[in-house]
Amino acid sequence: MHLLVSCLAAVFFFLHIDVEPAAYATPGTFLYAGCSPSRYAPNTAFESNLNSLLASMASTASSGATYSSFTSGAGPEDEAESESATADGASAASAAYGLYQCRGDLRPGECVACVRDTVARLGAVCAGATAASLQSDGCYVRYGAARRNLVGRADDTSAAYHRCSAGTSGDAWFLRSRDAVLSDLQGGVDATAAASSGGGYKVSASGPVQGVAQCLGGVAEADCTSCLAQAVAQVHGTCGAALAADVYLVQCSVRYWTNANYVRSSQGTWLQMQ
Question: Can you list the domains of the chain with their CATH numbers?
Answer without folding.
Answer: 30-144 (3.30.430.20), 161-262 (3.30.430.20)
